[in-house]
Amino acid sequence: MKKIYTLILLFFCFLLLSCNIVGSKDAVVAKIGSETLYAEDLDFQVLQNSAVPSTDNYKIVAERLLYSLAKVSKINGESKSYDSAWKAYEPIVRNRLLTIVYTRDHLMGRLGYADEDLKKYFKEHRDEFDSSVSYLQVRGDVAGRYFISQNQDSLKRFIQKTLPEKDEPANVEVLFYVADSLAVADMVAKFNATVPEDSLPLMRHAIVYQGKEKGVFADSSVIKALFLADSMAVGTGRGFRVLEDSVYTYFALKLKVRNALKKAKEEDFRKILEQNFVTLRRESIAEEIQKMGGDLGDVVIEKLTPKDPHKYYEDNKDKFMTAPGYEVYHVAMKDSAVLVKTMENVKDLESFRAVAATISEKEETSDSMGYVGKVKKNYALPYGIGMMPALWLELEGKKTGYISSAIHSLADSLYHCFYVLSVVPSEPKAFDRVEKLIESAYADDVESLDPATVLISERGKPVYRKVDLLKIFDAEPGIPYNKNTHYNLVNMLAQAYAIGEKARRDKVDDSWEFRALLRLARVEFISNRYDRMTQISAPTQNQIPENLKKFEYYYGKESIYKGKSFEESLSQITGVLTSRARVNAKVLSEMEAWNKANVFFYDRDKIELAPITSGEGVLASGDSAAKEQKFDEAISAYQKVVNLFADRDTLFRMAVYGLAQVYSDAQKYNESAACFEAFLKIWPDAPEAEKAMFSLGFILNENLKINDRALEVLEEFQKRFPKSELKESVDWLVENIKSDGKLAEDLMKKIESEE
Predict the structure, then answer these.
(1) DSSP line for 379-430
(2) Are 680 and 692 in contact (CB under 8 A)?
(3) pLDDT in tens, 542-580
(4) C-alpha distances in angstroms, 732 versus 326, 552, 673, 715, 743?
């Protein structure tokens, strides 16, 4: 019976591998609950994260992916609504994902070639690549070399065109001397008399390249003398007068060395020219991609117009209101003090009009007794009064008969007092006044658009509606929905759809990169949606382990919490740990999901990628990394234990001790000392306390030069551990500190003398 069961199990495993999980073209690496890990998914991580297989980074990336799959399996086990939401969302983002693969991977990465062709080239030319690298690690280089192999004629023409740029032009080495005309003539004579250079004052040296002449050497007479038919003989001198910045410069020049044009050899530059040839192709592709964004082809972004403008106007009259305002009189004067004094006795309209008619300095309104007319809020006032924002602030809520304070106008440089004759309310503008505005108002009012409104079409057929767009905002709640984000996303969707059509013609939708990205997008969508729907509650102060609070305090006592007691710092500590606890809770939930998932690795070589989910396992990985001097990896592991397993005191203690040691090994002495200080405060009687106290004292003295504190620690050590094997070393350190380092100096002198 047991044999039959085993055979049945093997048959189903074989069937599963043969089918590659519901017809997928890729090999299955593992099943994690209801989720499947494909080899493509790991390969995609190699490309996306430069995660080289068998490296620590690769293991970290793979672990992240495995946790995510376990989490999604758990989520879908609780509710199918998340997968249903993805199935509704996937058609909307499919083209965007396809665009990413098409432009980034197919065009830029593979230069438009099929992956199979590049793999074949890599296999046939394996000796051209480092034996330690895989195909995916060098795929871009493989694509470049394949492009060269397929375009030999174009490469030949490119080399013929660009090789001359590598030529070393003809050049001359010269001495030159700048002075007045007489001194220059004298120096030319000395040059031609072969007077030794050392005896000539104020000489300058220069190398001048033909075709790259600068300064005085760019003058036609100098170029002719150096390089053309009338060129100077080596060892001779000549004087020149050159017009430079409207001033004549006189100088003597001696030709020391002449070097002929040195033609570049193809064999010396072929490799770099091939690289330039490929780079030019990539730049050309990048330009093509940029043009794709503006070429929508048959894809149309629909112009949004109301079906019935009159109905839209009637339903939205509040959008077409006149600006509120006031009907006002005014008095204007240059002298604000006189104006204010005059207005003290003005109480009604008649007296205000009388003052305006007699003393107002605004000629345009004085004849009408200061009448300005109806003015709109936040608009410029007539008669050159201009913009007066202070007026609208003051008149807000005021009634008929109100007289304003003296307000200065920048437009006419006068001070104005206003009398409110009436308040003019807003009222709907007539339809014929706003008919042309209705279309833009409708298009701008995206939030009121019917969800069924067609936003993008192709050959007259709807492609995306507003309801589709809303699903994107639902998936990305951090993006606010407004006019700008609406139209930005509409443009993005239209471009992605148009480019997606090109990608499908090149069968990129059947590529392994697209399948992997689509699966990754699904996992991230479900995971993120679940996190939003199930907010993790923050732990209370009492729920945070006491020793974790103490560790946070003592570790940061000399920095974050300096000068404060533990009790005084408690609220701040709780805030820090509460924030951290939310992240930790997510990690713990992923670990729990992994532990509960039914995991089976079909590829037994990939079992090593399985995450370590126990506190003991994480601690052991830190110890192992520390022994191998992988300090960053060790620190990460110990910190993980501190963050996730602080409620298990022994594990917590060992992690803090390990952290202190590895910080010291990594020469991060401040961090190491802080960890040892915290360790001794929290676990003063731990088995490791003796070594911890010695290490702390030594680091404070030897590495940080904090001798007062070092002496305190070491003297405490002498009291607590009088029979320690480290007693002799501690006694010497204490005496050395007390001698202000003289003991160490004497020891060094003795060692040097013996040598």
Answers:
(1) S-BTTTTB--HHHHHHHTT--TT-B---EE-TTT--EEEEEEEEEE---BPP
(2) yes
(3) 889 999 999 999 999 988 999 899 999 999 999 999 988
(4) 92, 33, 20, 11, 8
